[in-house]
Write a structure and sequence with these properties.
About 30% of the residues lie in helices and about 15% in strands. By secondary structure, it is of the alpha/beta class.
């Protein structure tokens, strides 16, 4: 193992609604081939019926059980998983551990699809929800880490697709045809790997 590999942070992949950690299998395989230590967490329930702050506590519990307190960490969150990860980072102390944070097609400003459900967690992803307004009130916290948002303009789950934007950090727009394909497109893997290899900017 070379020094570059040794100094890499472990990477935690956080899935979206109606998914499990297995949705990242192809990406995880790609990243492990690059020499990264990759972990996934299974959020339960995963169908949007649990509030996102409780799912974020599951992320915090997983991190605390899996990694040493002094171990820095990188997180990749897909869709709802990006919002759950933001709550962990911004409200549950993750800002002290997470060095690189990548969201893939996450509804940072909400998605109109969330108006079609009464599930508690999904309701929190409506545009202008109290939950998102709270997170966005001090979103500049994320400037303390390396932040990258990856999204596709053709997304039919994150509506409008531009909701995946945050007004700082790095933004990568990929012409991927469907929301779930973001996790199987090699271009996404390459962007994620590059972001995880970037030197910390502070």
């Amino acid at each position: 193992m070379n020094n570059k590999t040794r100094k890499r942070n472990p990477v935690l992949l956080v899935h979206g609604i109606n998914d499990t950690g297995a949705v990242f299998d192809k990406m995880a395989f790609y990243l492990r081939k690059q020499g990264m230590v990759v972990c996934t967490v299974d959020l339960k329930p995963n169908n949007g019926s649990e509030v996102l702050d409780k799912l974020a506590q599951q992320v915090a519990d997983y991190v605390n059980a899996t990694f040493a307190p002094e171990q820095p960490l990188d997180i990749v969150g897909f869709s709802m998983g990006g919002i759950v990860s933001r709550y962990y980072i911004q409200r549950l102390g993750g800002i002290e551990k997470v060095k690189r944070f990548i969201t893939i097609s996450s509804p940072h400003q909400g998605t109109n699809i969330a108006y079609l459900t009464w599930l508690k967690g999904a309701l929190q992803m409506q545009p202008d929800s109290d939950f998102l307004n709270d997170l966005n009130s001090d979103v500049e916290m994320l400037k303390k880490l390396n932040f990258t948002s990856i999204w596709t303009p053709y997304d039919l789950i994150i509506l409008p697709a531009e909701s995946s934007r945050i007004p700082f950090g790095k933004e990568v727009i990929l012409p991927v045809a469907l929301h779930p394909w973001m996790l199987t497109d090699k271009r996404t893997f390459e962007v994620v790997a590059a972001a995880l290899n970037e030197p910390i900017s502070y």
